[in-house]
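anyone else get weird line breaks when pasting these?? whatever heres mine. first is seq + tokens for prot A
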Amino acid sequence: MYLLKKIKISFIIFSIVLIIFLLKFNFMKNKQAIIKEQKRSLLMQQEKEPRQQQEQKVESNKIIKLKFDKIYETKMWGPQGDGSGPGSTIEFTAKFRNIA
């Protein structure tokens, strides 16, 4: 009777330890899955940021081009030459063209 009781207690303790181990193992698997997902998400974000920066740069360049197109078309820099301003006339650029 005493031996049977000892075996039952040992079995219960073993079962509890096994359950704890399995729970901990499952927790570690879940933790690894969460870490893997976080890394994947971070990599995606890092890949996305350069695209967003590139798109912002393209938009910024379009705005700058529109401004300079307007300046050129309305000859805001003066009526001389072709609309690019007094520094772009044939006479003004002659000394620079002769250097090359």
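and prot B, same format (seq, then tokens)
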Amino acid sequence: MRPLFSVPFSPRRQILLGDDTFVASLEPYIKRVREVEEVPRGQRFVDRPGLEELLRDVEYQPNAVRDNLIREAHWKHWYTLVEIAEIVGLHYTRVSRIVNQR
């Protein structure tokens, strides 16, 4: 069945609604809000890349590469250990050990 109308925009994590130009114009504001803890987590990190995108094909990578990707997802993009564990198929305590390795 064909849709009755087309939508010229797509919601981004159910927070931003508009075309890519509009969303891009909000990036400076979003980066300032990231540090404000009163703003819900989902809204503070609306511009971060998707976890599936960050950890794409991680199961085919050597452990050292996998571990670096996991650390980046946690420390740089603020994904939780549980979120990462679900994607990579490890227990969250194992992900915690990987994240805290130096």
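btw re prot B: The two ends are 54 Å apart (CA to CA). The chain has a mean pLDDT of 79.
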